[in-house]
User: Fold this.
Amino acid sequence: MPNGQNRQLSVNLTAVSLTGGGREADDRTMTTLERAEAAEHALSQELDRVVVKSVIYTSGERDPRVPMPRPPDQGKLVMMGQDPRLPQMPAKPTLIDYFKYRFGPANHLLQSARLAQKSGASEKIVLACLVHDIAIAGFIRGDHGYWAAQLLEPYVDEEVSWAIRYHQALRFYADESVGYKYPELYAKLFGADYQPDAYIERDYKMARDHKWYMTSRLICVNDLYAFDPNVQVELEEFTDVVVRQFKQPKEGLGWDSSPSAHMWRTIMCPTKYL
Assistant:
């Protein structure tokens, strides 16, 4: 299959037993991860390129100290471009293209940006709310505020990337002056006795006295109240804000030479071998 061709691949896994004992036997003998890996293996057979996963994709599900088993290549070459199982990215992708073709469901981010906009926030804050969780949407969940800031730093105002970086810490601490309370969701997710790591507390204390503290805090405020599943927001509402506030590289986002371009290329081509 030529690189860049957007081909729909499908495998009828409901009609094929993965263990040889029928669907009921599959459920008894295979874990969810094993079934997913078996399905992925079946799908990968349709590719003309071999996909070798990076260690971070499987660490935790397997011990990263154990050598990664290499899939049989059957004479195939390894993946060295866009994965045809994913939507094809344009030749010169924009931030909007990443939202459309590489980020997971982003309604929460869109709601957050709309809330900021309706409250009369500046375009800087609206953009910050729109992109503050893009690491969760398309890259790495842990320490997502730091990752998102690093992704965005070459392309946005310094205040925006700073605010996104430190919302990672501020969200764990209430600020009654702007109506921000510790999220009830966190108690459910982490437990009532959860205490943030020392580096989070350190960054919170530093950010609290910074000139851009309130910019970062307003990301948290608009984040907290942006979880209504019944509210749908269109990405196109923010096209003009992105055009004015995001420095789109002429080569395409990921193909430029910024310090974080390689991170965008990883999102674009997540299964690239080297």
In short: The two ends are 19 Å apart (CA to CA). The chain has two domains: 13-78, 95-268. The first strand starts at residue 49 and ends at 50.
